[in-house]
Design brief:
CATH topology of the largest domain: Butyryl-CoA Dehydrogenase, subunit A, domain 3
Shape: globular
Largest sheet: 4 strands, mixed
CATH architecture of the largest domain: Up-down Bundle
Helix content: 40-55%
Strand order of the largest sheet: 1-4-5-8
Order of helices and strands: HHHHHHHEEEEEEEEHHEEHHHHH
CATH class of the largest domain: Mainly Alpha
Radius of gyration: 21 Å
């Protein structure tokens, strides 16, 4: 990976990897079993400054020249320790805070962005609804203009960090006739009357990362909490959502790395027929194929992150990175479980968790087929 890493980025990765090995990985299994939000770890990582990777120093950020590369490293390393924790951080430090920084007033930045980057507040981003998933233009949550602001009414579903968020960036329609051009973004403080968490959803994967169904019952949002323009505000955020596909790819890579490392170690230790199973060609070929897949995923994902840092168009590259990494790392995790054999099905070994968690990047942020559709449109077909 030296093709994309300079000395500073290598040191950043080294320091983060040490925190993952010492603090996160030892707790990963307990977090998965308890399904509880890891508030102490979340706060600790914020105090170390990692949530500020993509933001300027004046708000507690790091003011980096290559923020997308650094955030890709963050997502990969955290997912190597715990995909669930990485999913929490990935949402919090990117899409959930991006609109506040980009279109929020200085007062909103100080009230919400600054504490969020310290880990004192949890942020979420809410687009998906029961009848509006990949088709954002079908959003039914309505933002009705009233004196001094808006009244939001509607439901959101599958919202990461939704149960624990202190504030949420919400996509709502100001004019249903205009479809996607009539969708705007609003900052909703979760203490506002009318907002409720209807339920926490029980899912197969990333257990400590909550997914919530949210209800907005005439929630009043002041004018100052509209983020961007009333018409087309959501389209302004499209760049952030595009870059997030690279970070989702990095989450997949982190879990793929963990699965590969565990399978390689197990293959060297597990004895059958008088020798380690790694001596058998069938196991060797699986491990080599896993490594080849992993390196392909990493190279393309970091290529896409580099283009993003250069300000180049990345709609195709980000979608391809997500396809390659999500699908590829799921295959790596399947091979890892196969190498573990019967033990791979046991909860005492982490490989079953790696496989479960590998499904999250395949769905989160848009399914692989939706990514293929985006690429096809860019190709003019």
């Amino acid at each position: 990976m030296n093709l994309y890493f300079d000395e500073d980025l290598e040191q950043f990765q080294h320091n983060l990897a040490r925190w993952v090995d010492e603090r996160l990985a030892p707790q990963a299994e307990a977090l998965d079993q308890s399904k509880e939000f890891p508030r102490a770890l979340f706060k600790e990582l914020g105090e170390l400054g990692y949530y500020g990777i993509m933001y300027p120093e004046q708000y507690g950020g790091l003011g980096l020249a290559k923020p997308y590369l650094y955030y890709t490293v963050l997502c990969e390393e955290l997912a190597r320790g715990s995909m669930g924790f990485a999913a929490i951080v990935g949402m919090h430090g990117s899409a959930a805070t991006y609109a506040v920084h980009t279109w929020g007033s200085e007062a909103l930045r100080q009230r919400y962005l600054v504490p969020a980057l310290k880990g004192d507040m949890v942020a979420a981003f809410a687009i998906t609804e029961p009848d509006a998933g990949s088709d954002a233009s079908a959003i039914r949550t309505r933002a009705q203009k009233v004196e001094g602001g808006y009244r939001l009414t509607g439901n959101k579903v599958f919202i990461s960090n939704g149960c624990n968020a202190d504030f949420i960036t919400v996509a709502a329609s100001t004019d249903p006739q205009k479809r996607l051009k009539g969708v705007a973004l609003f900052l909703v403080d979760t203490k506002t009357p009318g907002f409720t968490v209807a339920r926490r959803l029980d899912k197969l994967t990333t257990h400590c990362s909550d997914a919530a169904e949210l209800v907005f019952d005439e929630v009043f949002v002041p004018d100052e909490c509209r983020l961007g323009s009333e018409e087309g505000g959501f389209l302004n955020a499209f760049k952030s959502l595009t870059v997030d596909r690279i970070f989702t790819a990095a989450l997949a890579i982190g879990t793929g790395r963990a699965a590969y490392d565990a399978a390689l170690k197990y293959a060297k230790e597990r004895q059958q027929f008088g020798q380690p199973i790694g001596k058998f060609q069938a196991v060797q070929f699986k491990l080599v194929d896993m490594l080849a897949e992993l390196e392909q995923c990493r190279l393309y994902t970091y290529h896409a992150a580099t283009l993003a840092d250069r300000g180049q168009p990345i709609i195709i590259e980000a979608a391809l990175a997500k396809i390659i990494a999500a699908d590829g790392c799921n295959e790596i995790c399947q091979k890892a479980l196969n190498i573990f054999g019967g033990y791979g099905l046991m909860n005492e070994y982490p490989v079953q968790r790696y496989l479960r968690d590998s499904y999250f990047p395949m769905i989160g942020g848009g399914t692989s087929d939706i990514m293929r559709m985006l690429v096809a449109r860019q190709l003019g077909i």
